[in-house]
Structure prediction request, 94 residues.
Amino acid sequence: MASLDEVSDWSLEKWEDGFRRDANPDRELAIWTYIANVYRDYTSEYNFSVDQKKELFRVFFTCSMSPKEAVMKDLNLSSISLEEAEKSVEAFYG
Prediction:
C-alpha cells in the first residue's frame, strides 16, 4: 500500500475490505504486491511527475488484467509517451 500511496487514494480499510471480499485473496495480494514492486522499481529509476506516475500505475494495473498483446489497446495515454508505455509494459512482463 505504501508504494502506491502517491497514485492511489484508497484507505487501509478499503484495501483490507477488497482483499477480504476476494474469492482468492492470496492470489490477489500477490498480484498487488507485484504491481507495487514493479511500480516502485520502475518509477525510482527516473524523475517522473505525479501525473506520469499515475499513468504508469494505470499501465501496470492494466498489465495485471490483460495479456501483454492487449495492454496497449486498453490504454488512453496523456502524460507518458507511447514509447514509455511500451517500455513499462516490458518491465512488467520482463
Remarks:
- DSSP finds five helices and no strands in the chain.
- The mean pLDDT is 87.
- Residues 36 and 91 are 13 Å apart (CA to CA).
- Residues 2-93 form one domain.
